[in-house]
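Record pair follows.
FIRST:
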Amino acid sequence: MFRNLSPSNSTERVSGSQVGVVAAIDRFFSVQDSGSTIATELRGGLTTFATMAYIVVVNADLLSKAGIPVESAVFATCASSAIGTFLMAWWAGYPFALAPGMGLNAYFVFSVVPAVAAALGPGPPDRAWKVALGLVGWSGGLFLVATWLELRSRVMREIPMTLKLAVSTGIGLFIAFIGMQAAGVVVADARTLVKLGDVHAPSVWIAGAGLLVTAGLWVRRIPGALLIGIVATTALAMMLGHAATPERWVAFPEVSGTTFQWDLRGAFDIRFLDIMIALLFVDFFDTMGTLVGVGVQGGFLDDKGRLPGDNRALSADAAATVVGAALGTAPVTTYVESASGIAAGARTGLANMVVVGGFCGAMFFAPALTAVPSFATAPVLVVVGALMATSLSRIEWEDPSEGIAAFVTALAIPVTFSISDGLAMGVAVYLGSKALGGRSQEISWVMWTLGGIFFLRFLFIPVG
């Protein structure tokens, strides 16, 4: 009657409990059903976080230019990213991480806040960014309503598979281009817009070595190749003295500076209608393009080119924007860097939980994230970009009405530095080539409506 108290049986019970927890996690996130493993999901999540952790520092720095306290901006960035990524895992079950969008944050800081300040006139210096956050909050709320009415998912489903494949390719080229910029391989030029950077610069050589290591590990199918590439590149940079060790590793987050500082009442003003429409447009199509692109990369689309549970994914994205505005940051959106974790094997929301943990920890270890230079993540972005570009092989090139539109979409995304603008140009070419080619019957009313929205956007709303 006392055998249950023996050490051996106690160990068995603990072991059984551990197995039970693992099994519960597996069942909740459908890890085995997705063809993955818990170890692979954890590794994929860590890779995603490593490739997007730069947003903590970059977003906070950008928001500070609008007058938002930088310490509070760090907390807002981490907290909104963690909550948004958690919602995506909980509601949709996809390994798509969320954070304040690059491009969206620049638009918020350099376009929205100045426009609001000009409309408001003289007043307290913090009033403009608080009203601007209110506008972001209202746009997120409208997104939620549109999502619940299934307007967003209907639009996403009706986009032809050709354009979806092109968006995936375009995003791949986009993030690879960002990686080359971060490494200094590509730099701005007044005459040709871009040119080859200084090949003697340390960042170019270190990133180049990191690319060779990362590509070699990937060819050998080494588990965690992308993450190892980031660590190896950072280590090399530190050894050569081109990556600084942070002066301090831990800092308590500053919460009060931006939390619930949004001015919803002040933002409810007809003077800001054009700004609101612009926010809705850019966020809507950036999110849609990203979901389609990473969906193609992960093989999540069904045989009709649709993302199962797309409405739940869009709901998580919209809710994250509202949460982000309440905490004090620019629109939160699905991140293209999620493709790096997917390339590393992530297939379920379990990978997102690692990203959530990373951002929660980053609230306290934000100074340590500066130890990873931007050029250390460049090799991973280039490799992932190459993997996403394989979607080109599935495009119907023999049909010019499909192939030309796909080419324009894939090219326009990186050269305009905008997923939504690239998609707009692709839709225009698709509609025009089909209609003028005598095949207008192949165009759905949703696509015609989408084309009209794009036209009105560029006609009446300032670009930038």
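SECOND:
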Amino acid sequence: MRKNNEKKEKKIAVLCGVISGFINGLFGGGGGMIVVPTLTQIFKEKQNVAHATSVLIILPFSLISAILYVVFRQVDYSLYPVSIGVIAGGIIGAFLLKKLPEKIVFFSFVALMGTAGVKLLFF
């Protein structure tokens, strides 16, 4: 019986990976919206672990997507200074993730996703 569950979990993991990669490639990010809930709800990981693992999983998607965006000339290099803020924010976020309680990480993620959804619907 356990073998069937492992096969099912692997199929779900691959499917979620494909969806995450598609979203990341299409929109230039956002794969974590799929990866984090998958890791927490299906694979029962803690919030902090799911978010950290999501970043690690999304990294190769992002690198491949970035290379393709450059190859297809879809990049506005004048906006490159934004990357300085992204790097600084990523470092700060990684340190905070280690220290914040799981519930705060969860509710912060819910608030961020909810805010983004409302903004997309109405603005």
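COMMENT: The mean pLDDT is 89.
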